[in-house]
């Protein structure tokens, strides 16, 4: 156990007082030994690490008894705070006699009173046997019996107690590092009048900062150690102590070449090591003071905890709705054009440059944008989407950039965070960028150039780390030429362009996509499939989804041409080639009359048709039937079933009647 020696002239109240005074702080965690100068013999050695004496003269006398390892400290003393109030109440300029056991200690007491701010009185040091008839008040630190009898009022402030400055010296020499002792000194310092209030405050500030540092390193889930320049451990948190078999003062060496080769680097950022079946991400950074390196702080992050944190972050983002639900694996395609787009998008994902996705409405621009985000290094962070054409200018501005409280009439009382701030570290998707007002284009340009935003109604600049993906179905170059889109913004956006093909150029994807949208298995007649493959799909994939929704609701098991929505039948097919063949062979009116005749019957032969259409002979009817059969508009059956019109024939009739050419 560490020890302190107290040397006084003789055993008495003072020696016992000082022992108790020390134990107020050290609470028996440091051994306190009393020595009395009158009892010390020549050659006797005091081997306590710290020896405390009352005055400089005593320090000189004790020197011959102290071991070479001992440090002699002259105690600086002060008064208890509660005793000072008695003195403070004495009227100004009053003569007050100060009495102590010796002339030297009396002078010390006077100096102490002045040094702690009692300067409104006229203190007179007592000299033994001298009469002070004009003085009525005396102050003494526990030496009441030495005060002359004629003094009317005696204020006993008690023995002078040890000052904080002396305790700090003892702490330093004994290398005290005990939380309870440090807390005791804080409490003790609050009960005394320190000779140096600056030291008291500095120590309290240092203690509080020490506590804050301890809470900080204990609060983290990482194992943390601080080492000196010789790589000896100075401080650790409990997680580090539990994980690794190191103690304070040990050299920070694992005796594992793979780990030690990593740790000997001057700076480490996120390098991976394996220790006892656990995987850690290691960070190491020099600690510098006044440009001099004083050591290093090293942290070990359990990769399992990191993954758990990632999952929690992802969960929180999902709860708030700011996440990307699509990825590249979810894109259904057999189209070479689309596969090329996906390959480009995957390469683009790994960069942070701005992306501009162009394509007709409904081609899947947002799906590609979400896939890029989920394939990028930002996948853990928010994906925020906004349609620039869906909101008026003022509302779009406040949504994107946020606003301060009271920024405008109707603003939320507490203000509002903007989408750029919400998307920080993630991705913001600006759909229909071609419809963004020119004023907001200017603000967006600043975000892209400076990575900074300002809320509406605020002058404060906020730094943001956001990747921007923009999309449009418009020709931005033409908008630039027409003065409707800023040229500088166009070039800022068009860093990494992707152009998505329309569905009509992805015919091999039409049926697989349609099947994926259906709730159940549905069969399609050949004519229906042929029609869908040749339809122009102006609404692209979104329109195909609408068709699937219609078929799901109608609960068809097998879809014929007549089951399709009317607008598909009206606009979905081109019969110009068939019309040209017909007109090169027969009069169109005759062919139409034959088709209509067949359509009105469940099945009819050529003789019956000739009888019903008197101006067409049976031979010509036979030729027209052969032509219609070759064109796939009728079905010929043997026997009584006769000839029947099919869906293509019906569609051709509908096409002719409506004049769709």
UniProtKB/TrEMBL annotation:
<dbReference type="InterPro" id="IPR025944">
    <property type="entry name" value="Sigma_54_int_dom_CS"/>
</dbReference>
<keyword id="KW-0804">Transcription</keyword>
<dbReference type="InterPro" id="IPR058031">
    <property type="entry name" value="AAA_lid_NorR"/>
</dbReference>
<protein>
    <submittedName>
        <fullName>Putative sigma-54-dependent transcriptional regulator</fullName>
    </submittedName>
</protein>
<dbReference type="GO" id="GO:0003677">
    <property type="term" value="F:DNA binding"/>
</dbReference>
<feature type="domain" description="Sigma-54 factor interaction">
    <location>
        <begin position="331"/>
        <end position="553"/>
    </location>
</feature>
<keyword id="KW-0238">DNA-binding</keyword>
<keyword id="KW-0805">Transcription regulation</keyword>
<dbReference type="InterPro" id="IPR025662">
    <property type="entry name" value="Sigma_54_int_dom_ATP-bd_1"/>
</dbReference>
<keyword id="KW-0067">ATP-binding</keyword>
<dbReference type="InterPro" id="IPR003593">
    <property type="entry name" value="AAA+_ATPase"/>
</dbReference>
<dbReference type="InterPro" id="IPR025943">
    <property type="entry name" value="Sigma_54_int_dom_ATP-bd_2"/>
</dbReference>
<dbReference type="InterPro" id="IPR027417">
    <property type="entry name" value="P-loop_NTPase"/>
</dbReference>
<dbReference type="InterPro" id="IPR002078">
    <property type="entry name" value="Sigma_54_int"/>
</dbReference>
<dbReference type="GO" id="GO:0006355">
    <property type="term" value="P:regulation of DNA-templated transcription"/>
</dbReference>
<dbReference type="Pfam" id="PF00158">
    <property type="entry name" value="Sigma54_activat"/>
</dbReference>
<dbReference type="InterPro" id="IPR036388">
    <property type="entry name" value="WH-like_DNA-bd_sf"/>
</dbReference>
<dbReference type="GO" id="GO:0005524">
    <property type="term" value="F:ATP binding"/>
</dbReference>
<dbReference type="Pfam" id="PF25601">
    <property type="entry name" value="AAA_lid_14"/>
</dbReference>
<keyword id="KW-0547">Nucleotide-binding</keyword>
């Amino acid at each position: 156990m560490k020890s302190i020696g107290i040397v006084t002239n003789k055993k008495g109240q003072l020696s016992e007082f000082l022992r108790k005074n020390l134990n107020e702080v050290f609470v028996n965690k440091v051994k306190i030994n009393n020595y009395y100068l009158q009892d010390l013999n020549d050659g006797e050695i005091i081997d306590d690490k710290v020896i405390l004496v009352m005055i400089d003269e005593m320090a000189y006398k004790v020197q011959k008894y102290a071991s070479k390892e001992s440090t002699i400290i002259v105690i600086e003393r002060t008064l208890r705070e509660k005793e000072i109030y008695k003195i403070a109440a004495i009227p100004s300029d009053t003569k007050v006699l100060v009495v102590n056991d010796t002339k030297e200690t009396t002078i010390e007491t006077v100096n102490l009173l002045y040094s702690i701010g009692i300067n409104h009185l006229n203190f007179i040091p007592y000299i033994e046997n001298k009469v002070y008839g004009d003085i009525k008040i005396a102050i003494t630190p526990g030496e009441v019996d030495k005060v002359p009898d004629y003094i009317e009022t005696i204020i006993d402030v008690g023995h002078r107690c040890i000052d904080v400055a002396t305790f700090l010296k003892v702490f330093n020499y004994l290398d005290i590092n005990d939380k309870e002792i440090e807390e005791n000194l804080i409490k003790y310092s609050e009960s005394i009048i320190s000779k140096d209030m600056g030291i008291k405050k500095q120590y309290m500030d240092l203690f509080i900062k020490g506590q804050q540092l301890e809470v900080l390193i204990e609060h983290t889930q990482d194992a943390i150690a601080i080492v000196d320049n010789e790589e000896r451990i100075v401080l650790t948190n409990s997680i580090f102590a539990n994980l690794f078999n190191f103690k304070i003062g040990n050299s920070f060496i694992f005796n594992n070449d793979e780990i030690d080769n990593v740790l000997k680097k001057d700076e480490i950022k996120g390098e991976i090591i394996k220790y006892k079946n656990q995987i850690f991400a290691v960070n190491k950074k020099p600690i510098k003071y006044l440009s001099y390196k004083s050591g290093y702080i090293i942290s070990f992050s359990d990769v399992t905890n990191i993954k758990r944190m990632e999952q929690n972050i992802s969960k929180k983002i999902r709860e708030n709705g700011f996440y990307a639900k699509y990825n590249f694996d979810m894109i259904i395609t057999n189209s070479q054009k689309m596969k090329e787009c996906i390959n480009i998008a995957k390469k683009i994902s790994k960069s942070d440059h701005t992306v501009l996705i162009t394509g007709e409405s409904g081609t899947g621009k947002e799906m590609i944008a979400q896939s890029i985000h989920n394939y990028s290094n930002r996948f853990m962070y928010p994906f925020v989407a906004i349609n620039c054409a869906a909101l008026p200018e003022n509302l779009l501005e406040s949504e994107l950039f946020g606003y301060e409280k009271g920024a405008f009439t109707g603003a939320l009382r507490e203000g509002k965070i903007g989408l750029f701030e919400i998307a920080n570290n993630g991705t913001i998707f600006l759909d229909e960028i071609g419809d963004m007002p020119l004023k907001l284009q200017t603000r967006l340009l600043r975000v892209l150039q400076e990575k900074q935003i300002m809320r509406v109604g605020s002058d404060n600049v906020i730094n943001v780390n956001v990747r921007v993906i923009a999309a449009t179905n418009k020709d931005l170059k033409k908008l630039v030429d027409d003065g409707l889109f800023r040229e500088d913004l166009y070039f800022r956006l068009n860093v990494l362009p992707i152009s998505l093909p329309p569905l009509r150029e992805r015919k091999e994807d039409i049926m697989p996509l349609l099947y994926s949208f259906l709730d159940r298995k549905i069969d399609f007649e050949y004519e229906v499939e042929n029609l869908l493959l040749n339809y122009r799909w102006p609404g692209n994939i979104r329109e195909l989804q609408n068709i699937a929704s219609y078929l799901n609701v109608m609960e068809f098991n097998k879809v014929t041409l007549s089951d399709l929505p009317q607008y598909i039948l009206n606009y979905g097919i081109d019969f110009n080639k068939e019309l040209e063949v017909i007109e090169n062979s027969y009069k169109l009116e005759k062919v139409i009359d034959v088709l209509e005749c067949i359509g009105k019957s469940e099945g009819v032969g050529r003789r019956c048709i000739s009888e019903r259409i008197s101006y067409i002979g049976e031979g010509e009817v036979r030729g027209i039937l052969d032509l219609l059969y070759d064109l796939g508009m009728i079905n010929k059956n043997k026997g009584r079933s006769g000839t029947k019109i099919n869906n293509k024939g019906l569609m051709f009739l509908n096409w002719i009647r409506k004049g769709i050419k």
